[in-house]
Amino acid sequence: MTASSKLIEEREKRTEWFRKDRFGMFIHWGLYAIPARGEWIRKDENITVEEYQTYFDEFNPVHYNPREWAKAAKQAGMKYAVLTAKHHDGFCLFDSKLTDYKATRTKAGKDLVREFLDAFREEGLKVGLYYSLIDWHHQDYPAYGDDFHPMRANEAFQRDPDNFSRYVDYMHGQVRELITNYGKLDIMWFDFSYGEMSGEKWRATELISMIREIQPHIVIDNRLESNSHVSSIYTDNPTLYSGDFASPEQTIPPGGLTRKDGVPIPWEACVTLNNNWGYAAADHNYKSQTTVIRKLVECVSKNGNLLLNVGPDAKGLIPKASLDILAEVGEWMSLNSDSIYGCGASSLPKPDWGRYTQRGNTLYAHVFEESIGAISFPGLAGKVKHARLLSDGSELQISQPWNTADYTSAAFVNFAKPEHFSYPLPDPRNTVIKLELIEPN
Ligand code: GLC
Fold first, then answer.
1. How far apart are CA 185 and CA 114, in angstroms?
2. Mean pLDDT over all residues of the chain?
3. What CA dihedral angle connects 337, 122, 15 and 202, to 10 degrees?
4. Centroid of ligand 1 to alpha carbon of 191 (angstroms)
């Protein structure tokens, strides 16, 4: 076995649970919840560390109750959650011994990461931490001339590149703290590499080796190497730091994600509920519950996961609009999650009326669009043992009504008799028909 095939085999084993769980919660939270204009505010508004200090001095999330967050995630049908332990602003939600720029030095006065991990584990969810490779607070991180630093245009912030290694030592030290001091973590979510700031600039091989030595099972994203298709995870010769899954952002890859030779790779689309990761008080542009349900199905139908984001406010509360959507999605998941967990793509082409997900001989038809007469299943004539409405287990009619007699290669299913009638979808958001196939197609 070559080193590359061993690495790929280990990746497949590590991500087995990840590729079954399919649905997670992303949580972006920190000082930026106070200005409430998103987590890039320091860069967008060229805010200095001194100006940003006012938020550090003020941060006091009196309503922080991660158990409530965990219950909302669990009720939504989410199986794992990833919290920002440190975002680009460098503020640490955990009690790092390497800096005073942390929650335990604010009025919060506690290790917010530890409480998050305890709460989500108690609700039975797997847990992950997001850690920003970028750090706009650290004095040795490139500033003047950087692509994104808030002081990128300020010549007073020229930094000696020889000192960058001190930042990398700091970054490695903090990752070691997270991997060592907070129990079993299931995911490490790094963000993000850009230009020359990628791969061995972060001393990625050393970092991954350290992580794998302490927590060999942990699933890691691909952003140590790249956010884009440059990442060697798409090849049959991945680097040690290519990651265990690709991380498309605010989009669902048109055909899913595979290696150049067509072999599927694990991937997870990270998506916001409105248009911001961090709390943005004025952003009321929320996706509907139907969109979220159908996009989760689209990810699974393409062998991918959905990491759906919430941005709690400065007091520690997830916005009501987000909670309402999660509750509705959870209601659908409570009746239909068999068509999500442990499922993946079908070899059948995408049908006109919606999407397929599949697990072994069980094919799930996600019907988004009403049919005129019976619902057609091209290519499945004679291949379906029986059909049930997933939500209530009721028997559905498999037949070839007189008006479909010309389409002999297709199977036809309807919700009631007579089978040639048109019936409304039991769930207009997404009606799931469970088809037991005589053999996997
Ligand atoms: C982008 C954003 C960052 C966010 C991440 C989530 O990298 O810059 O703020 O945390 O997407 O994937």
1. 11
2. 97
3. 130
4. 7
Identify the helix (H) or strand (E) that includes residue 290. Answer: helix 289-301
Which residues, 6 or more positions from 176, have their beta carbon under 8 angstroms from its beta carbon? 210, 214
| Residue 26 alpha carbon, nearest atom of ligand 1 | 6
How high is the pLDDT of residue 230?
72
Kindly state the percentage of the chain with pLDDT values over 90: 95
Which amino acid type is present at position 266? P
Global pTM reads 0.98
Helices (H) and strands (E) in the chain, counts: 10, 14
**Which of 249, 252, 270, 276 for a ligand 1 pocket mutation test, highest count of atoms within 8 Å of Cβ?**
249
Q: Residues 412, 418, 424, 428: what is their CA dihedral angle, to the nearest 10 degrees?
A: -40
pLDDT of 229 reads 67
| Cα(406) to centroid(ligand 1), Å | 52
Q: How many CB atoms lie within 10 A of CB 260?
A: 9
| Three-class secondary structure of residue 144 per DSSP | coil
Q: How far apart are the first and last CA of the chain?
A: 31
Domains of the chain, CATH where assigned? 3-338 (3.20.20.80), 354-437 (2.60.40.1180)
pLDDT grade for 441, boundaries at 50, 70 and 90: low
Tokens of 385: 């043992």
For residue 422, give every residue at least 6 positions away whose Cβ sits within 8 Å of its Cβ, in sequence order, or none: 370, 371, 372, 373
Q: Which residue has the tokens 């009326």?
A: 353
Residue 140 in contact with residue 169, Cβ under 8 Å?
Answer: no
Report the candidate in 132, 281, 258 with the shortest Cα–Cα distance to residue 192.
132
Chain Cα centroid distance, residue 297: 14
- Find the 87 Cα to ligand 1 centroid distance in Å: 9
